[in-house]
Amino acid sequence: MTVDTPFPTEPETAWTTVAGTIRKGMNVIDAEGTCLGQVETLVGDEVMLAGDGGHGFIALSQIDGVGEKGVLLSDRGDAMFGMAS
């Protein structure tokens, strides 16, 4: 017998957004084709990046699309907003 619980037992690894389905581990690629990091999780309207203790994030509004190669950012000048230095 299984019991349904209201709380997930495993962390989410995929999130459906207006840009497409974002999955944990996807590369985040800027407009020049440089990989800025990998998706760790989605918090609110921000994609949090995995990294070396950094707390980089990308706002969903900066995403141009989600493709086979990863999360593709728009070529807006503020695409680096939120990146840890």
Brief rundown of the structure:
By secondary structure, this protein is mainly beta.
Question: Would you mind describing this structure in some detail?
Answer:
- By secondary structure, the chain is mainly beta.
- It has one domain: PRC-barrel domain (SH3 type barrels), CATH 2.30.30.240.
- It is built from no helices and 8 strands.
- It has strands spanning 14-17, 20-23, 27-29, 35-43, 46-50, 57-59, 63-67, 70-73.
- The strands form 2 sheets. Strands 6-5-4-3-8-7 form a 6-stranded mixed β-sheet, with no helix packed on it. Strands 1-2 form a two-stranded antiparallel sheet.
- It is globular, with a radius of gyration of 14 Å.
- Residues 77-85 have low confidence and may be disordered.
SSE arrangement:
Elements: E1 14-17, E2 20-23, E3 27-29, E4 35-43, E5 46-50, E6 57-59, E7 63-67, E8 70-73
Parallel strand pairs: 3-8
Antiparallel strand pairs: 1-2, 3-4, 4-5, 5-6, 7-8
Protein name: DUF2171 domain-containing protein
Pfam family, one: DUF2171
Organism: Novosphingobium organovorum
